[in-house]
Amino acid sequence: MSQASLQAIPRTMDLKSILEIRSLCQENPCRGKIRAQVESLVRKDSANGKPFWELRLRDARSSLTLRAWSDSLAFSQCSILLTCSAVEVTGEFFCNGQYGLDARRWEIRSLSDEESHSLFQGESSTEEDFGWIQQTAEKLNDPRLRELGLIFLKDFGTRFCRAAAARKMHHAHRGGLCRHTAQMMRMADKVASVYPHLNRDLLVAGTLFHDCGKLWEVCPPEEGFLVSYDLRGELVGHISIGIELINTLWRKLSLDSWKEVLPPSEEVRLHLIHLVAAHHGEYEFGSPVLPKTPEAIALHYIDNMDAKLEMIREAYVVNQQVAPAVFEKCRPLNVGPISPLSPFF
After folding, report:
1. Is 318 in contact with 100 (CB distance < 8 Å)?
2. DSSP string spanning 50-104?
3. Which of 12, 80, 139, 293: CA 20 to 30 A from 315?
4. Which of 210, 213, 224, 136 is nearest to 175 (CA)?
5. CB-CB contact of 296 with 275 (8 Å)
6. Helices (H) and strands (E) in the chain, counts
7. Interatomic CA distance for residues 54 and 32, integer angstroms
8. Is pLDDT at 8 greater than 50 in this prediction?
């Protein structure tokens, strides 16, 4: 990068997320700050024997790999960092061809306890999504599904707000499950209004519980972004955990109060469990059963649509353009995304 190019870099030093920096650097380099957690820190040597630190950072939405060479200030700063510590990186960020986001002349410092706590509090959008989910659960007409949803959110709301929806594919970040679930519940409400023969309460409750097992399969700690592997999640999987959780919470309901309510409580429980068991849609994708009810079919496609729309949305930010309006291949979708057509105004 030439000196003239460096002088042309906007001199803003605002605090940004990794995704925001990545988006800003698609066309022009920029100066900025990011706060993130150290995912890994490895001392390496280049082909000519020059030592460097390879530093991988992760914030609430994305990750970034930087290299600190021995002749830089960052090299000595990295030598005293600890894995999983919270840090702030200040520097000149730019897109480095096929290697993606990179930085020059960057420095790094550890965050104070107060700054670290603030970093891990989560995004305001997660709070908004959780509030909307709770309000929607409160409005369910079926008293069994309403109480079940509210008990779940009361007992596990904090964990639910920080869980990821996946380890890699979509919404693979702290708070991702809350966002994914809220979007699915919004879609479920609209789909039920278009197809009035669907049981709206069952479909909405199914979206709330469909991935509840991920609270144990892919959930970062209270003070962190890194999703470690969980023994229960690896041995049992989120679908089985979700079914177990529904059965556990179901035993807390005041079922004696609803003996005369139709449909019978036992049928409601079984239909809800079927939605969780069948939401992957195919045996080869992990479903123990195929969707056998209208609500199960609807839930499967709502889940699939939100996942794929999130994948392509993120691809526009993370993937490099290989030609005007053409992006490099998005592996989960197995296509090279094309820039969407702007709406008519």
Report:
1. yes
2. -EEEEEEEE-SS-EEEEEEETTSHHHHHHTT--TT-EEEEEEEEEE-GGG-EEEE
3. 12
4. 224
5. yes
6. 13, 8
7. 20
8. no
What Rg, from alpha-carbon coordinates, does the chain have? 23
Asked if residues 117 and 37 have their Cβ atoms less than 8 Å apart, the reply is no
- What are the tens digits of pLDDT across the range 79-117? 888 888 899 999 888 887 666 788 888 899 999 988 888
Q: Each residue of 296-306: pLDDT tens digit?
A: 999 999 999 99
Which of the four pLDDT bands, split at 50, 70 and 90, describes residue 1? very low
Whether the Cβ atoms of residue 133 and residue 184 lie closer than 8 Å to each other: no
**Tokens representing 16?**
């940004």
Handedness of CA 14, 15, 16, 18 (dihedral sign): positive
How close are the terminal C-alpha atoms of the chain, in Å? 39
Q: Please report the pLDDT score of residue 117 as a whole number.
A: 84
Highest mean pLDDT among 2-6, 99-103, 124-128, 253-257: 253-257
Cβ-based neighbours of 117, under 8 Å, separated by 6 or more? 223
Q: Which residue has the higher pLDDT, 318 or 207?
A: 207
For residues 149 and 308, what is the distance between their CA atoms, to the nearest angstrom?
26
Span 326-337, pLDDT tens digits: 998 888 888 999
The beta strands (E) that lie in the chain are given as 15-16, 30-45, 51-58, 63-69, 86-95, 101-110, 321-323, 326-327
**Token pair listed for 55:** 């530093």
Which candidate, 234, 233, 241, 184, places its Cα nearest to that of 213?
241
Average pLDDT on 137-160 reads 96
Residue 263: CB partners within 8 Å, gap ≥ 6?
none
Closest alpha carbon to 287 in 275, 298, 277:
277
In contact, 177 and 165? CB cutoff 8 Å: yes
**Dist CA 221 CA 255 (whole Å):** 35
Domains and CATH numbers, the chain: 3-118 (2.40.50.140), 122-312 (1.10.3210)
